[in-house]
Design brief:
heterodimer, A: 232 residues, mainly alpha, 0% strand, globular, B: 180 residues, alpha/beta, Rossmann fold, Arc Repressor Mutant, subunit A, 2 domains, five-stranded parallel β-sheet, 9 helices
């Protein structure tokens, strides 16, 4: 199966790419898809099918770069999508890691030092996720919607969207990556390997979703801002 | 300067083992070959050649090195990790070359490296929550030197963030939780 196109039956696409399920939920598309094509489902949900396909293909394929022009009204849809994504992180994926980690710490030996280190690392990660969501809610989404309406010019937003490479603060993605490294490369002693794997699996799920959604931020959102800036 | 490739041949069949030694010496020198008819300790070899029975009976030993393992079997296969005993010389050479192209040796190198005393000092400061400028001032070195040390530490440990480095420091006893 190559790129996803509107004539495809969505249930068949999901059978092949099950990681799409949480992504579709953010468009209010849920399981029980029947045999409808993507075009039909988008029509029913009031979604612009071309925009939807760009989102899906960007989410699924690392080497896909959208080449079409977007309209400002898509900003509202992206904001809604990103809000639901953040919600999913905050209420599903991060608590999922926390739950597994809690069990892991409870059932692993008595080396207090290692367990404290891991708990601290997770707390930093949790804090970074909360901070990013807070920044999204209080600054980014608000400004994006303003730009969508073209009420005012906000060129600084492009910088805001870029990664914080120059700052000394750690991003949630970086901490998550380090958690994985610590677990795989540096953890030793009396640990519950099975629960360790469960934590690693939960971290992997969130890492994958982060990467997929960062592609949407970087390949759809940024060009959209650039385009609107030029119009202004 | 080219470095000798380090190759392990774990093959019970003497004729096949001698044949592989000859082929490797002819086409891939300079090389160092550790030959045996049974399983030995698997150091980070550039290439490990074994047979399917040894591989299946010792998967937990081989799997961490799977990118560097070639398995000799008697069945035709398109799998690039397999060499068929009836393959011609050219095909066998191609399979071996494909393993040598894998960029995995540096990973072994990095994980085995230890932090220098100065890097440990820097790591201790990071774990205590000092920012780069503060570390430079405390250790009386330039900011660029601190950045270089941090880059090297991250390359060695595979850990980049301050939070991750702090955890590493606690786990390895570089800093006590009381110091935080």
């Amino acid at each position: 199966m190559g790129l996803i196109i509107k004539q495809m039956v969505l249930s068949e696409v999901v059978e092949k790419y099950t990681s799409l399920i949480p992504m579709l939920n953010r468009f209010d598309i849920h399981l029980g898809l029947g045999d409808d094509t993507i075009q039909t489902i988008c029509d029913k949900k009031g979604l612009d099918v071309n925009f939807f396909l760009v989102m899906v293909n960007t989410y699924l394929f690392d080497d896909y770069y959208p080449d079409q022009q977007f309209e400002s009204f898509h900003i509202g849809q992206i904001v809604n999508y990103l809000k639901l994504t953040n919600n999913y992180y905050q209420h599903v994926l991060v608590p999922n890691i926390a739950r597994h980690l809690h069990l892991f710490i409870q059932q692993s030996g008595k080396d207090n030092r290692i367990l404290i280190a891991i708990q601290r690392l997770f707390d930093s990660f949790d804090q970074a996720v909360k901070q990013r969501i807070n920044e999204d809610n209080t600054e980014l989404f608000k400004d994006m919607l303003s730009m969508g309406k073209q009420i005012e010019k906000e060129p600084h937003l492009i910088a805001l969207l870029s990664s914080k490479n120059e700052a000394e603060t750690d991003t949630a993605e970086e901490i998550l990556h380090d958690m994985l490294k610590i677990f795989i490369r540096h953890l030793s002693g009396d640990i519950n390997e099975n629960l360790c794997y469960a934590v690693i699996f939960a971290i992997g799920s969130l890492s994958k979703d982060f990467a997929q959604n960062n592609r949407i931020r970087n390949r759809i959102l940024k060009p959209l801002f650039t385009a609107i800036d030029k119009v202004d | 300067m080219s470095k000798n490739k380090h190759i392990a041949l774990i093959l019970p069949d003497t004729i096949i083992r001698l044949g592989m030694e000859k082929l490797l010496s002819d086409f891939f020198s300079p090389i160092t070959i550790d030959s045996s008819n049974g399983l030995s300790n698997l150091a980070p070899y550039d290439l490990i050649i074994t047979d399917s029975i040894h591989f299946i009976n010792n998967t937990t030993v081989f799997l961490p090195h799977k990118r560097n393992v070639l398995i000799i079997n008697n069945l035709p296969s398109d799998d690039t990790s397999m060499i068929n005993a009836f393959d011609n010389t050219e095909t066998i050479i191609k399979r071996i070359q494909s393993v040598f192209k894998q960029p995995c040796r540096s990973t072994y190198k990095d994980t085995n490296e230890r932090l220098t005393p100065r890097e440990t000092d820097i790591l201790r400061c990071v774990a205590k929550g000092l920012i780069n400028k503060e570390i430079a001032k405390l250790l009386n070195i330039s900011l660029n030197t601190v950045l270089t040390h941090r880059k090297n530490i991250s390359a060695k440990l595979g850990v980049k963030t301050s939070s991750g480095l702090t955890s590493y420091a606690i786990i390895n006893g570089i800093i006590s939780t009381n110091d935080l």
